[in-house]
């Protein structure tokens, strides 16, 4: 009996390193948002210190069950008040370093989950 598909239809993060992420065949060197539903867009922030509540309010507008926040080279947390728009819509948020967020995104997207990753590349 087979429980998982051989290949997910979701976008896949193929690799990452300091200052870059590869999605499918394309390499990116700036912060971005990716979703298992096909969204791929720039995320207008280059440093953790550039983040504002508006960045998380915009994430709440993307239909998802879970947002993975990749906070850069190390795990850092934003103010809990910034997460209110996500909580009000019942969207979960997990914070981890960007490389861990890439790995977690691939696992959840491969399971068919409706997941978004907001990945900070500094």
From TrEMBL:
InterPro entries membership: MTH938-like_sf, NDUFAF3/AAMDC
Protein name: Xcc1710-like domain-containing protein
Organism per entry: Comamonas antarctica
């Amino acid at each position: 009996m087979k429980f998982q598909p051989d290949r997910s239809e979701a976008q896949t993060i193929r690799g990452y390193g300091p200052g870059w992420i590869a999605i499918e065949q394309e390499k990116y060197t700036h912060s971005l948002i990716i979703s298992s539903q096909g969204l791929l867009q720039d995320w207008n922030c280059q440093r953790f210190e550039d983040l504002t509540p508006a960045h998380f309010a915009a994430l709440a507008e993307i239909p998802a069950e879970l947002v993975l926040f990749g906070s850069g080279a190390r795990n850092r947390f934003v103010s809990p008040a910034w997460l209110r728009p996500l909580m009000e819509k019942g969207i979960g948020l997990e914070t981890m370093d960007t490389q861990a967020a890439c790995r977690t995104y691939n696992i959840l997207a491969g399971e068919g989950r409706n997941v978004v990753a907001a990945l900070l590349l500094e």
